[in-house]
Amino acid sequence: MLTGKQKRFLRSKAHHLTPIFQVGKGGVNENMIKQISEALEARELLKVSVLQNCEEERGAVAEKLADGCGAELVQVIGNTIVLYKESKENKEIVLP
């Protein structure tokens, strides 16, 4: 689990990122979880945007993605979800 201080740090790091995945009408599926897991391994921190036509709640989408990828949910703000997972090979972010 991340502490409040670590989440604040990650939010500041994520601020300038643009969402690279979108969850739409189909919701969360296995393929999306696999792709996001690979992207998290490469980047450690990423944003996912939830589109207007998504039928699931943003919070539920965030939980599914975090659980499916084994990632930490940093924040859900508006229609954007920020996820963090420590990379095994390309560790770049050092948490406070």
Automatic annotation (TrEMBL):
Q: Which UniProt keywords apply?
A: RNA-binding
**InterPro entries reported for this sequence:** RNA-binding_CRM (IPR001890), RNA-binding_domain (IPR051925), RNA-binding_YhbY (IPR017924), YhbY-like_sf (IPR035920)
One GO MF term, please?
A: RNA binding
What Pfam families does the entry give?
CRS1_YhbY
Q: Locate the CRM domain: which residues? A: 1-96
- The signal peptide, as residue positions, is none
Q: Which NCBIfam families match?
A: RNA_bind_YhbY
PANTHER family in UniProt = RNA-BINDING PROTEIN YHBY
- Name of protein: RNA-binding protein YqeI
Species in which this protein is naturally found: Robertmurraya siralis
